[in-house]
Specification:
Elements (H helix, E strand, L loop, with lengths): L1 H30 L13 E6 L2 E4 L7 H11 L2 E2 L2 H6 L7 E7 L4 E9 L2 E6 L4 E3 L2 H7 L1 H4 L15 H7 L3 H10 L4 H14 L4 H24 L6 H15 L3 H12 L4 H7 L1 H21 L4 E2 L2 E2 L3 H15 L3 H18 L1
Antiparallel strand pairs: 1-2, 1-4, 3-7, 4-5, 5-6, 6-7, 8-9
Helix pairs in contact: 6-8, 8-9, 8-15, 9-13, 9-14, 9-15, 13-14
Length: 342
């Protein structure tokens, strides 16, 4: 019996030693700090990306890069892994990248939390004391400029055109009858071209091309997995409509729709035009995130800036086109919608 107790005590002692050892290693790991950051030599730098804007060529000794960015990041205070676990950005970050001549990309994510500025490296190391950079670029504000911004509802200029359009009631009734259709998209484009002074003889072909291009953009974007599903769109509409109900612009639009016997919210949920606008905004957002994540090249060249990158990628989707059968169907729908306008 004594022998069994001794064995138990030894086992417990071993377990205790293991627990203490693991705890010690964990504590050491938690308090360990990364090394100071060291930038590449200026002569090795090909370009620098400042949150969507690219500067080509080697930096100079009097540049903003040397005086603010390099100086402050190399002197940033390293934080322990404990801080790394507990301090996270609330949303998006300000992205600063260096592209070396050998095409290697070094990326830093800057963010603000509880009025304190932080910098995170690609391997997850966390640093602070970069307030001089914050004074220069306003990290919190600048980090939000590429958040998903949907311009598909009341900021859409189409509604100003519609309010000016003589046959707006007929158009709204047509939308109610032709929900989520190319016909509705065509007539919307036609009205916009008409209200913006386009030659009447050119409108039909331009409106048809617009509908074909938008369909190509969406269908090819879906293949590239840069679109979102309809449930997300419906969620967006329901949220946005609540926010805009007290807006004077909303009231004018809603009044016209009610006069035509159609609820504006129902129109938004069933409009292919508005849905496609939402998808284009979403695809633009996805491509901007690609750029910020280090995909700086488009069509074999470095993009001039984030907008050049995203617009070039969207143009690629349009240029891929549709199948002959799909395009023919869309053109037939547009022709049908054109006849209803005459």
């Amino acid at each position: 019996m004594k022998g069994v107790n001794i064995m138990k005590k030894k086992a417990l002692a071993v377990v205790g030693i293991v627990i203490v050892l693991v705890f010690t290693i964990l504590c050491f790991w938690m308090i360990k700090k990364p090394n100071k950051i060291k930038f590449p030599n200026d002569s090795d730098i090909k370009l620098i990306q400042y949150n969507g804007f690219i500067v080509q060529g080697n930096p100079t000794k009097v540049s903003e890069y040397e005086k603010v960015w390099k100086k402050n990041i190399e002197n940033a205070k390293p934080l322990s892994k404990f801080h790394n676990i507990t301090i996270k950005p609330d949303s998006s970050c300000y992205v600063f990248s260096i592209v070396e001549k050998n095409e290697n990309i070094i990326t830093f994510n800057l963010f603000k939390k509880d009025k304190k500025c932080y910098l995170k490296t690609e391997d997850g190391a966390l640093y602070t004391d970069i307030e001089a950079i914050d004074k220069l670029v306003d990290i919190e504000k600048s980090s939000k400029i590429y958040n998903l911004k949907n311009k598909s509802i009341l900021s859409d200029e189409f509604y100003d055109d519609l309010l000016k359009y003589d046959k707006k009631i007929d158009f709204i009734k047509y939308c109610k009858k032709n929900k989520f259709s190319n016909q509705e998209m065509y007539q919307s484009s036609y009205i916009s071209f008409l209200c913006n002074g386009e030659k009447k003889s050119d409108i039909n072909s331009k409106a048809t091309k617009t509908v074909v291009d938008i369909n190509a953009e969406y269908e090819n974007g879906k293949k590239n997995k840069v679109t979102t599903d309809k449930s997300e769109y419906e969620k967006f509409i329901k949220t946005e409509i609540q926010e805009f109900k007290n807006n004077s612009r909303y009231k004018k639009i809603d009044k016209v729709f009610k006069k035509a016997g159609y609820n504006f919210k129902d129109y938004l949920l069933n409009s292919k035009r508005v849905f496609m606008n939402y998808q284009i905004e979403y695809m633009n957002f996805k491509y901007q995130q690609e750029f910020l994540n280090g995909n700086l090249k488009v069509n074999g060249r470095y993009a001039e800036n984030i907008n050049d990158y995203s617009s070039s990628r969207l143009t690629e989707l349009i240029n891929k086109g549709l199948s002959k059968k799909a395009q023919k169907k869309i053109e037939s729908d547009c022709e049908d919608a054109y006849k209803k306008l005459q």
